[in-house]
Amino acid sequence: MAPSMDIDDNVDKKSKSSTAAKKVGTPSASSEEASPHPDMSLAQDIHRVMMVHSSTLSVEDATAIIGMDPAVLLDKVISRVGTGGKSVEEAIKENEAKYNKTEEDSTEDKKKDEEEDSDKTDEIVEPLLNAALYRHLQSTLGYNKSDALSEVNLTAIEAHHEAIIKILRENITKAKDEAGDMEVLHAHMDVARYCAKCTTKEMALSAYEEVVALPKLSIGKKLDAYLEMTRVCSFWGDWKSMNETLTKAAKVIEKGGDWDRRNRLKAYQAMSYLCSRDLKSASTLLVEGIATFSCAELCEYSEFIMYAIVTNLLYLKRTEVKKSIIDGSEILQVSKDIPVVMQLANTLYECDYKAYLHTLVDLQPHLVANRYLQPHAGYILRELHVLAFQQFLDSYQSVTLESMATSFGVGVEFLDLQLSRFIAAGRLTAKIDKYGGVVETNRPDWKNARYQEMIQKGDLLLNRIQKLGRVVDL
């Protein structure tokens, strides 16, 4: 039987994870080995800058959410994607020095980098030198400051990357001739991760395809490669390729795989469902993944909780909302980081509809500022409105428009307009008596409806049996 490449070459990490109790949201062993690139927090920052640039998100709201002026964030993003404030020559020289070393030096540097990364995981300031992404931001945002990189600079950076990738590919050849399967895998991953950091989506995905095509590759390592490919697709906003890659990963995990990787795959699938507006499927995976979340490379834990709360409010029963969200121990740990979303859940559960609508207004910029939720912000807000109206009407056989408007803190005309829209669309089972100023609920009689359905199906079955009997008689 062929040897497996699924060898844990980092014993220290494994021993640490077995001796210490894992905190909620702490990266797992396989998550810690994941590449930090592409950086999904950078993708969020780019999205927010673009929302402000297009006037979809106001400067005031953006400042309140990100904690800094959007203009400052723009400069930081451009600096990070480019040379980090250094000259092109200096940045290229520093990057080149990392790869023009002897094998012994590079091994020692990798160990040092791992130790340093564990001490400063919250702050990644290494410039990406990504010419393709820089061009995209420059053209989209109209960034033309005096310190902006010129086309000559960007061409020089691309030529530099070609030289580095050539060195990394020579390492693959060397590993095939002089080392074993694990070293070949590492050499291929070095190429893929460098492309994910510094080049285009197409080059990165092509390099990862070479990884998953390696012979004797274990299920765990193949799944890790697919998850990193998923992040590349997500970073560049290619949701279709993201879904296709996750489908391949799901087929791989069916053949085996540890629980940690299974849980990580579910988190990635939840984000894919979120992007395709399949909020019901996403809500199930999100609430299941709260206790086992370890994908720090995908999003922050507080972000993941935000997604779980917003989606599950739409589908969980009121008692389940109390149990799983409001009183959930893991959610309470990060409740201070997501006050608006927590207030939304609490006001809905406590039937404080006036405060609930005010919270929806506060929630809107947070949805717009999030790259996964922004395309669906209008849909989510509409569904949250329907949810509150339905919950209120379920308590009454009939209620006056004035009384309901007072409970929601809105005008009668506004409420009448909102209710009529949702009733006409079949979203609310009620009718409005405009003359009497009353809303009457029409609760469907499910028991009677099922009885009638059974009678109809029974009649159809009897008719078919009679026809079959005539054929047999003939």
Structure class:
mainly alpha
Total number of β-strand segments?
3
Q: Please tell me how large the radius of gyration is.
A: 28 Å
Mean pLDDT: 87
Strand content: under 5%
Measure the end-to-end span: 64 Å
Shape: globular
Oligomer class? single chain
Sheet with the most strands, sense and barrel status = 3 strands, antiparallel
- Determine the fraction of residues in helical runs and give it as a percent range: 55-70%
- Contiguous low-pLDDT stretches (5 residues minimum) are 1-23, 114-124
Biggest sheet: strand arrangement: 1-3-2
Query: How do the SSEs run, as a string of H and E?
Result: HHHHHHHHHHHHHHHHHHHHHEHHEEH
Q: What is the tally of helical segments?
A: 24
Give structural notes:
The chain has helices at 11-19, 29-32, 40-53, 59-66, 70-81, 88-99, 103-119, 131-141, 151-178, 181-198, 201-212, 219-235, 239-253, 259-275, 279-289, 301-312, 318-326, 329-333, 339-349, 353-368, 377-393, 401-408, 412-424, 446-473, and strands spanning 398-400, 430-433, 438-441. It is mainly alpha-helical. Helix 19 (339-349) packs antiparallel against helix 20 (353-368). The longest helix is centred in the middle third of the chain and has 28 residues, at 151-178. Mean pLDDT is 87; it is low at 1-23 and 114-124.
